[in-house]
Amino acid sequence: MGQEQIAEIFGVAPKTIVEWQEQGMPIAQRGKPGVPSEYETDECIRWYVDREVKKVQGERPQDRLARVQADKIELELAEKRGVLLPADQIEPKLRAAMVAAREMWRNEPSRLAREVPGKPIKEIEDLLAKSYEAFLIKLAHWQSAQVVEEEGEE
Questions:
Q1: How many CB atoms within 10 Å of residue 127?
Q2: Cα–Cα distance between 44 and 21 in angstroms, integer?
Q3: Which whole-number Å values give the CA distances from 71 to 12, 21, 68, 96, in the listed order?
Q4: Phi-psi bin for 58: left (phi > 0), alpha (psi -120 to 50), beta?
Q5: 38 DSSP β-pair partners
Q6: What phi, psi does 37 have (nearest 5°)?
Q7: Which residues fall within 8 angstroms of residue 44, CB to CB, at 6 or more apart?
Q8: Distances (CA, A) of 27 to 20, 38, 39
């Protein structure tokens, strides 16, 4: 049976049959340019029913287990490649970067106040922009922040 006929059986457009092929609909004989594919009606109906039943049933326990195992393997590989770091390695560095940036920002008002008097608005804006940029750079370089153990930590 050709693409037009199988589409008619399912009550869909021939374009839908092409989409279903990409999703796994069986093809008895694959067509060529200008020659449509051919289909076995009973195999296509069986595929369609199985597909619809799976939608209704949802994930089976075996499927969930396989998915979780695959996720675990992906995470382990990412960690080995250095793409993934445990939170306990990241958090101290982030905290150190935040503290360094906060301390830098705390000193900025008095420093800027000393530099601003008598300067034109454009220069003041440039000073503020450079200060803000330095703050953001400090935060952005969190990976190289020096971790200092605080009192009371083990």
A1: 16
A2: 10
A3: 37, 28, 5, 31
A4: left
A5: 2, 29
A6: -70, 160
A7: 6, 9, 10, 25, 26
A8: 10, 6, 5
List, for residues 91-143, the tens digit of each pLDDT value.
888 888 888 888 888 888 888 888 888 889 999 999 899 988 988 888 887 77
Place of tokens 């199985």: 50
Contact 101, 135 (CB under 8 A): yes
The terminus-to-terminus CA distance of the chain in angstroms comes to: 74
Length of the chain: 154
Q: Are 133 and 101 spatial neighbours (Cβ–Cβ below 8 Å)?
A: no
Token readout for 128 is: 């503020």
User: Assign residue 60 a region: left if phi > 0, alpha if psi is -120 to 50, beta otherwise?
Assistant: beta
